[in-house]
Amino acid sequence: MELFFSTGWPVVIIGGFAVGFLVGLTGVGAGSLMTPFLISGLGVPPILAVGTDLLFASITKASAAWRHNRLGNVDWPIVKWMALGSLPGAAAVLAWMYLTKPDVHVLSIIIREVLAAALVISALCVAAYPLLKRRANGNGNNGAATDNPPVRRAPTLALGIILGVLVALTSVGAGAIGVVALTVLYHTMSARRLIGTDIVHAIPLTFLAGISHFGMGHVDLTILGLLLIGSVPGIALGSRITSMVPDWVLRVVLALVLGWAAYSLIGPLAH
Cα dihedral angle (77, 82, 85, 91), rounded to 10 degrees? Predict the structure, then answer.
């Protein structure tokens, strides 16, 4: 509880609102933004920040996934093959943590470094998404756009494994990285279906990783509750005004925020 004596609970709620607003505004970034905020902004230990954010992500993504499913924006065969890779991948990392009980200090440094790298990749993915989408649509489909492409099983499974490992260790990867990778694999799908598929896949992944971290004592329920109090109205407000802001502005803003988050994590390691 030292966190609340040093920062106060309003800071947690305001931070949750700010992150929620950016998530609602841009559509991605829950793990990419919340975990760095907890680590660099509030001084939460990296392993505790990851576990808390994973449960936060699974809860906040559930409402969005329900809406996307109602609108028919989910390709369930792709979700299945991604999950076949991501859930075992995440389980392997979590089992390693549970069985080996690595040194907390060393693990914190590893998480910071991997998280910073994942954030840089996420920033590049967010910035490059329109270009990749445009190039993918112009290559090889001969105008035959479809929202129900055949599943590319091996690469989709491999993508799931990579995302599972990244998410279990850093809570980052199921958003921007997942959408861009799906764009490359399934370039004939519409953006809304790519995003809906990615969000639905992220729910069991973040829940499995989050509940496992909770079992290992890596979740602060008080922080989680305060973050939800702030983020829910933030997401609602961001979602309402997102149509008023040009897409390129949103992507530039999010890429810069992700880059800053990576720098904020790398900075302490360099001293």
Answer: -110
Segment among 101-105, 157-161, 165-169 with least mean pLDDT: 101-105
Give me 229's structure tokens: 């109090």
Return the HEC string of the chain: CHHHHHCCHHHHHHHHHHHHHHHHHHCCCHHHHHHHHHHHHCCCCHHHHHHHHHHHHHHHHHHHHHHHHHCCCCCHHHHHHHHHHHHHHHHHHHHHHHHHCCCHHHHHHHHHHHHHHHHHHHHHHHHHHHHHHHHHHCCCCCCCCCCCCCCCHHHHHHHHHHHHHHHHHHCCCCCHHHHHHHHHHCCCCCHHHHHHHHHHHHHHHHHHHHHHHHHCCCCCHHHHHHHHHHHHHHHHHHHHHHHHCCHHHHHHHHHHHHHHHHHHHHHHHCC
Q: Of 212 and 104, which is predicted with more confidence?
A: 212
CA dist 31 and 68 (Å) reads 19
* Mean pLDDT of the 191-207 span: 87
State the pLDDT at residue 143: 46
Which is nearest to 212 in space by CA: 172, 169, 178? 169
Cα dist. 30→131, 132, 189 in Å? Answer: 23, 22, 23
pLDDT range class, residue 5, cuts 50, 70, 90: very low
Of 247 and 180, the one with more pLDDT: 180
pLDDT of residue 270: 46
Q: What is the model's pLDDT at position 76?
A: 95
Phi, psi of 173 (to 5 degrees): 135, -30
